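WARN no homologs supplied; continuing
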Amino acid sequence: MHKCFIEMMSRNVIPTACHIQGFLFSERHRAVFAMRYIDKCWEIHRAFCRQNTRPPFEPTMKMRQFLWMLNDFKLLGKQLTASRLVEILFKDGPSLHDSSSSNLEQELVFLEFVEALLHCALVYVTSDTIKEQVDGDNQKRRNFRTEGFSEGTTNETFYMQYSLSQVLRPCEDRGQSLQEFLMDELEAQTGKDKEFDWWMYQVQIFFTNNLFPAYQHEKVLKAKIKENRIQNAELAELRRRKDEEIAKLIAEREAEDAKKQKEAAEEVSLESKSTVFKELEEPGVQLAPPPKEEASAVPAPAVTKVPTGTKRRRK
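OK structure emitted
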């Protein structure tokens, strides 16, 4: 045990001690900005975790489940493909991935989950995506000017409506716009870091406009599916009870019909018997005499008469 512990410390712990690794905490400003989304990411991570089959049986997420999650969110596409996502997942663990196979059964801890999402943001959000986002925001502002004021909508009403559509935006949740956040974070720097600004726009658009709304839609969809299952189970139970009642009524009806048929048959039998009795009781109706026994054909024995004038001769 002593030798194994020393080997582990010398090989894995001491060489990486005091060296920050990973994408999230590599730079302070990136970590500060990303921490604004950490609570919602934790909620998503917990929602898609599954119970581990091995002790201590804690909820865990595998790389395969992470891929399925983004596929359910409809975030896999032309830019963020499945193969590109696999490369992101195995970026920090090249020994687990080669050109021929990938072990997607590896566990993703929460820190790896967040870093994978940040990498996905950089791939998913391109310059064209940001341009579309800017055009969409400008269109919303123009619609507000042309429709909002014509309908008597105040600035406060519009802000409430716009906040509802952007409820997952962390900066607005804290009463701080993205521009104000950028100014506060960049004051300590000597110059404007364009790369950092670009990274923030990519992360902010991916999380607030794509990931979080997709998760919210999936959450509502699952709740609706659960509700439908409960309703279907209730309807199935009602149908079962109705079928039982119908079967019971049919059985009662058949028993009643059989009883009526039996009573009708008995009634017909009694009527036929009573008819016969009435015919027998009517006058002039006599029973036929029983047949006479035929006379015996044997003749009676003949009797010989002795003549009266003849005397018996004496000896």
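Residues 2-124+166-241 form one domain.
OK
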